[in-house]
Amino acid sequence: MTLRLAALLCALVLGLFGGATSVLAAELRIGMTQFPSTLNPLIDSMLAKSYVLAMTRRPLTTFDQNWELVCMLCTELPTIENGLAKPEDLPDGKRGIAVTYRIHPQATWGDGVAVTSADVVFTWEVGRHPKTGVSDYEFFKRILSIDVLDDKTFTFHVDRITFDYNAMGLDLLPAHVERPIFETDPAAYRNRTAFDTDPANPGLAFGPYKIVEVVSGAHIVLAANETWWGAAPAFERITVRIIENTAALEANLLSGAIDMIAGELGVTIDQALAFEKRQGGRFDVTYKPGLIYEHLDLNLDNPVLADKRVRKALVHALDREMLSERLFAGRQPVAHSSVSPLDWIYDPDVPTYPYDPDKAKALLDEAGWSVIEKGIRHNAAGERLTLELMTTAGNRTRELVEQVLQSQWRQVGIDARIRNEPARVFFGETVAKRKFTGAAMFAWLSSPESVPRTTLRSDQIPTEANAWSGQNYTGFKNAEMDALIDAIEVELDRAKRKDLWSRLQRLYVEELPVIPLYWRAEPYILPKWLSGLRPTGHQGTTTLWVEEWRDAR
After folding, report:
1. Tell me, what's the pLDDT at 446?
2. Collapsing DSSP states into helix, strand and coil, what is residue 147?
3. Does residue 273 fall inside a structural domain?
4. Beta pairing class for 85-89 and 69-71
5. 210-251 per-position pLDDT tens digit
């Protein structure tokens, strides 16, 4: 009797204390700085959304950690060589291509409904509807039709043969959940989608995790998805906590409130370097350089910024080499164009804009901003040379960079006024609807050899008429750039395509629709017991392989 009682007491103690350890081991708490403006995969382009959704779903294809194109939702990558991609003649006499994919046979939404070709067709219908305002309307418009071969097999008929014809990063919508919402009012769909009104609906997920709780601006909780067909994830729950202030993010890590900081949206490089010196024995700190382009989008509808001489003066007035060295210890090199030196298409001979304040002053004089009163330039009409500068509030590095830009522009007579906003407002409204009047600082995260159609082509400028579709937030319009983008996409010869890329980079730096700042390196601060997380260096977030993460304790 005494032995039985002792055994029961032992079991109770294990349940209270050993069980607590088990629960903690079964949960991973991630900290990041931004809350998604929406959780619908087709609406708005925001890294915070991509990071979370990558745990709940998989695109058809993606680039892996070695920058190779691979299938995720599909079972075999279509190629012309294996016969799954076939060039075809179109009715208008042009050449298109038919590309056939097969969805993983076990892919199932979290509510038990199979992921099928019907979801592909529905996603295409939403994406090509002119009133839904998806981020990449052009992508869907190019798909002329879809042949449904069976529940899991379908063929895209695309209106041209591009060099990346099989790179279909399509992110599916669940037809059985979203179709009734969409068909009620396509124009209102973006504001009524179940991804935002009912985000814990299991029918929205088919990845290793599903969302079970969302508190706007605070946190998102994910739980293991029973219908996931791949390797079982190691954590029963993952909580993504949103802490917009990067100093507070570090404090939460040290206090144990979170286990890790997302490299994609975490602390700044200078914080990480300092943190590693102080706490490197407790955490693993990894730096991953990649295709992350920090820059200033300029609103070219502003008459001041419409003058190319002013845009060039803005760059010449900045000592970006000093900024890179002092703030980032040289780990985030100066960007001279929108193409990274890590990408094979990079042209090292593209002209650059060195720090030259005298040149900046001469350009401003030439542009008519030659009257100086109390250190600030004015034009002949007495207008003050003032520029609004915006970015995501709470991001310490961006706020430091803003102060450097403001100070250096002031030295040549430009008055920069800082006005920052929370990330969900900045990206969801101000940038997406081109409400910024001057310069908007943020980053583009791309894949290898990513054609800048949505960001630079003139038909990709968001307007109310096109339901704010497209990502050409600067309002850049250039016929040669349009022609180069079109030519690059359909040039299958790598050498010839490299020449076109060189011309595009030269035109980009000549026209200067944005101000290039630097190439970011992502600092990952991870607990020493976490294994399997591999940074990619491109827009495929680490969470696309979250099922490989393991608790190594």
Report:
1. 87
2. strand
3. no
4. unpaired
5. 999 999 999 999 999 999 999 999 999 999 999 998 889 999
Q: If you search the block for the tokens 């706490």, which residue do you land on? A: 279
Within-domain flag for 221: no
Q: Give the least confident one: 155-159, 359-363, 365-369, 444-448.
A: 444-448
192 occurs within a structural domain: no
Same structural domain for residues 165 and 308?
no
Can you tell me which residue has the tokens 């009257």?
Answer: 371
Query: Could you list the residue range(s) of the whole structural domain that residue 84 is in?
Result: 62-180
Q: Name 490's Cβ contacts closer than 8 Å, sequence gap at least 6.
A: 160, 161, 162, 163
For residue 381, tell me if it sits in a domain. yes
- CATH number assigned to the domain comprising residue 331: 3.10.105.10
**C-alpha pair distances (Å), 42 with each of 199, 219, 239, 338, 442:** 15, 21, 23, 24, 20
Those residues whose C-beta lies under 8 Å from the C-beta of residue 523, and which sit 6 or more positions away, are 263, 266, 267, 268, 269, 271, 272, 273, 285, 286, 287
pLDDT band at 3 (very low <50, low <70, confident <90, very high): very low
501 CB neighbour count, 10 Å cutoff: 21
- Is the domain of 370 the same as that of 517? yes
Mapping DSSP onto H, E and C, the string for 353-377 reads CCCCHHHHHHHHHHCCCCEEECCEE
Residues whose CB falls within 8 Å of the CB of residue 406, separated by 6 or more in sequence, listed in order: 389, 416, 418
Residue 379 has pLDDT above 50, yes or no: yes
| pLDDT at residue 394 greater than cutoff 80 | yes
- Counting the structural domains of the chain, the total is 2
Structure tokens belonging to residue 227: 């219908």
Of 63, 26, 28, nearest to 534 (Cα)? 63
Beta strands in 382-540 (DSSP E): 386-390, 415-418, 439-445, 514-527, 530-531
Q: Residue 290 is encoded by which pair of tokens? A: 């990649």
